[in-house]
């Protein structure tokens, strides 16, 4: 009985030690994730390159509005690809609406999607009736959009100034910051010592 009692005590001690180690490891993983979390939008090589002209398309929005893409525009354009079934897209909608309202940004926000979802109901539910919303497979193919949410920023001449996958407010802001600093990505700016001399 003494040997059995000792072995049970040792087993419980081992279980408690493993539990403490697992707790400490999970804390370290959380700290590591915060340190290495991506700061900027995740740029892909597909589609028109940064610095290249955007494809020029004359599209019609869901509410029969004329939505030109590419070419000279009165304001810079943020083209945001989303889907009604994408939870991350829905999380970014309040930020997009705030960007469209912010007169200091002087930014035209255009929403783009495709598929068979009830997009009209989606824009009503999300309060997006004041933003251009286009359904165009051709537009998504022109930019080689394979994952969502994806954003493309164009200047007034229709040149692509920044682009990438955006999963958070910080990544969306990084596109605007990259344009303001005249660099394709925040990561490239931080990695180029010449940029810091200015």
Automatic annotation (TrEMBL):
Residues 48-181 form the Thioredoxin domain. The chain crosses the membrane at residues 6-25. Keywords: Membrane, Transmembrane, Transmembrane helix. SUPFAM superfamilies: Thioredoxin-like. It is found in: Membrane. May be specifically involved in the processing, transport, and/or maturation of the MADH beta-subunit. This is Methylamine utilization protein MauD.
